[in-house]
Amino acid sequence: MADRRTRLAVALCVALTAVPVTAAHAQVFAEFGTGATWSSILVRDTIVDGFTAQPAIAPTLGIAVGTPLGPKYEVAVGLAWARSDLQQKQTEGSRDIIPLTVWTGTLDLRWRILPWASAQASIGAVKYSAADEGRQATLFRNDQPLEPTVGLGVRVDHPLGRHFLVALDLEWGLHRFRTQALSETGFGSRIVNRVFLGATLRWSNAETTR
Amino acid sequence: MRKRRARALALTVLVGLAGCQSVESPNRPAPYEFRASPTDPIFHFPSSQLPVRFWAETTGALQEYVELGVQMWATQFLYGEFWGALVADSLQADVIVRMPGPPPPDAPLTDDPPVQTCIGVTQIPNFVDDGSGQLRFEARIDIEMRWFSGEPSDIANCLARVTAHEIGHAMGIFNHSSDQNDLMAIPVTARRPTARDASTIQTLYHIQTDILPFQP
To answer: CB-CB: which of B12, B23, B203 is closest to A44?
Structure first.
């Protein structure tokens, strides 16, 4: 079921990106971003005492390529990588469970809302990947979940020379989280929020104007 | 237009709030007593000492049974509380598994009904105050496996089951379950940990240990 949805999302991404690239007469931009991602709780459980499992704030790298869709709109395809420890948190403190990598692939539609700011809506997929060592003893033992995601964001930008632009991004994404090991234990799925704050450097083959 | 924007914003907030939903913990079976006596100190391997290192003699398929048993127990956890690895040097091990005598006849594991053609004994070492007020084992945990005559597949199945059972003892379950379906019951008839075994080992690993493992 999840695989079918994922395949659909990927097909949609490819279809939507292929059309505007052709239409924009090869006006393209490329972006490199870095920042940090906060994630909400993945699991809340009680064994003797209550505790949660939540990724620590993760250093994040991202790349994107895109093209304008007119004076106000643009579309981009992005891939982000975030890595931190999955932590067990309870009143007595926290401990690291396992290193966790989260890949996010998105199709982003941006539109300018102010001369110096734009808004963004995204769809895509999130993939969790836990380190191999010790993974069998965790909620990620049987699978590395891939879930559809939607998101919104705002960007404040400033031109940097003729072809570059620097931006500050705040993005929020939402996806469902579940794993086979959690399901087998009797857990349902959970909605997870992720918030990214970071800076992006953008290069465009067209002159950067406002 | 403004109404549509307001609706979109409200929907966004609602969807965001959905992320704050509280998912209840699943109902797990009640654990059985894991201490030999309810007043005994508690032992389990601390998370700072993972993976737990197992050394097994190369007799027959003993290493395979140990690896299988460790993996079966590790997969009872969701939060990385316990996992283990086979090591080549017994001096580096936390748990030693031996099988004295000749190797058992070679046979694959099957789903045949259990036949008692083997036994296992886990030697839990004495513990002492290590000088800092902390209890610590004086030696490594030792498991000894023995097999008797029988059908080769019965012996193999018995050794795999009982090795997994003894690994449960080495992990800190120093008692037996009264439910014959559990892996930690005697005689051992279960092939793998049940939900009650899982609940018991999870409970044990979520309680502060009183005794630390042996440190050479």
So the answer is: B23
Tens digits of per-residue pLDDT, A186-206? 999 999 999 999 999 999 988
**Given CB atoms, is B15 within the 8 Å cutoff of chain A?**
yes
The DSSP annotation for B51-87 comes to SEEEEE--STTHHHHHHHHHHHHHTT-SB----EEE-
Residue B208 clears pLDDT 60, i.e. is over it: yes
Average pLDDT over residues B189-194: 96
A47–B27 C-beta distance less than 8 A = no
Domain boundaries, chain A: 2-24+48-204
Asked if B12 reaches chain A (Cβ–Cβ under 8 Å), the answer is yes
| Cα–Cα separations (whole angstroms), residue B45 to A45, A64, B93, B183 | 21, 45, 13, 20
B-contacting residues in A 120-179 (Cβ below 8 Å): 133-134, 136-139, 141, 152, 172, 174
pLDDT band per the 50, 70, 90 thresholds, residue B63: very high
Domain B2-212, architecture per CATH: 3-Layer(aba) Sandwich (3.40)
Burial of B161 (0-12, 13-18, 19+ CB in 10 A): buried
CA angle B60, B61, B64 (to 5 degrees): 155
- Would you list the domain boundaries of chain B? 2-212
Radius of gyration of chain B (CA): 22
Write down the mean pLDDT value for chain A: 89
A43 in reach of chain B (CB within 8 A): yes
ipTM of the complex: 0.83
Q: Do residues A66 and A29 lie in contact, with contact meaning Cβ atoms separated by under 8 Å?
A: yes
Residue with tokens 């199709």: A107
Is 1.10.10 the CATH classification of the domain at A2-24+48-204? no
